[in-house]
Design a protein that fits this description.
The complex is a heterodimer. Chain A is an alpha+beta fold. Chain A has helices at 21-27, 41-51, 56-59; strands at 14-18, 31-35, 63-66, 69-71, 83-86. In chain A, 24% of the residues lie in helices and 23% in strands. Chain B has helices at residues 28-34, 68-86, 116-133; strands at 21-22, 42-49, 53-54, 57-58, 61-66, 90-96, 98-101, 105-113, 136-141, 147-149. Chain B starts with 20 loop residues before the first strand and ends in a 21-residue tail after the last strand. Classes of the chains: A alpha+beta, B alpha+beta.
């Protein structure tokens, strides 16, 4: 194989998004993979809501984390980034 | 968010080996002992326990889930920040994950300081931050088998979409 892609479990051009708690329940899965060629957190929100309409309400109250840090809507989401949707937290 | 790690005292390097998220019962005495110091004039221990009644609904047990790498990192940063902000001698935070029965401890915070005021205030501050920032969620489970994730709280300010439902420009 000539393919020299880095060893990751996510292909370039796709983005795996981790879902937790009620977000996982509503969508019926713990992660989703979408095609991704770049864009902002805001773009990602729109894409996700379009992919899984059921999560739209909770998504509008959720934050997005990139590489384990909260990210604002204008932030860039690189291909292959570790992305998670963080619904309102309830620890303690 | 500012990065508190850049200005923390040397002592904090011990934090690396301390378990922050656990899946077993939390030993309060151990948490308390972890912050003991001969220069402490006050030590505060906060224990959060699973209560049976939540908004009129009888809960049998709670299940906690976390985005673990981020939760551990955030708890560590908050603990470091509390030490700097309140001038603590030491601080220890443990949060439990998985199933937690009624009456069991879900979170424990111990703070030691020269005087009681800082220890009390830091403990209160830490709990508030945990409830707003740390990606941990609880699921209330009743005796009849019903279960519900609690999403009545919030996420940190500034990380929600500007408009919940994208409105088209006028």
């Amino acid at each position: 194989m000539h393919d020299q892609r880095p060893v990751t479990n996510v292909d370039k051009g796709t983005l795996r998004i981790n879902l937790f708690a009620g977000m996982a329940d509503v969508s019926g899965c713990r992660s989703v993979e979408i095609e991704w060629t770049g864009g902002t957190v805001g773009d990602l929100r729109s894409r996700l809501a379009a992919c899984i309409p059921a999560i739209e309400t909770l998504l509008s109250r959720s934050a997005v984390a990139i590489a384990g840090a909260y990210a604002q809507d204008a932030a860039d989401v690189p291909c292959g980034a570790e992305v998670a949707i963080i619904p309102p937290v309830s620890g303690g | 968010m500012t990065d508190p790690v850049s200005s923390v005292p040397e002592k904090l390097s011990h934090w690396g080996s301390t378990p922050i998220l656990v899946r077993h019962e939390i030993d309060a005495a151990q948490v308390l002992a972890a912050v003991a110091s001969p220069v402490a004039g006050a030590t505060v221990l906060f224990i959060g326990t699973t209560r049976s009644l939540s908004d009129g609904v009888v809960t049998q047990r709670l299940e906690y889930e976390a985005y673990e790498p981020m939760a551990a990192k955030t708890l560590g940063s908050l603990r470091d920040a509390a030490i700097v902000r309140f001038g603590l001698i030491d601080c220890h935070v443990v949060h439990r994950l998985g199933l937690v029965k009624v009456g069991e401890t879900s979170v424990a915070i111990a703070t030691s300081a020269a005087h009681r005021r800082e220890a009390f205030e830091a403990t209160q501050w830490l709990m508030e931050q945990i409830k707003h920032e740390v990606p941990i969620w609880k699921c209330e489970q009743s005796a009849d088998g019903s279960r519900e994730w609690v999403h009545s709280g919030s996420v940190p300010m500034g990380f929600l979409p500007a408009t919940p439902n994208e409105s088209s420009p006028a």
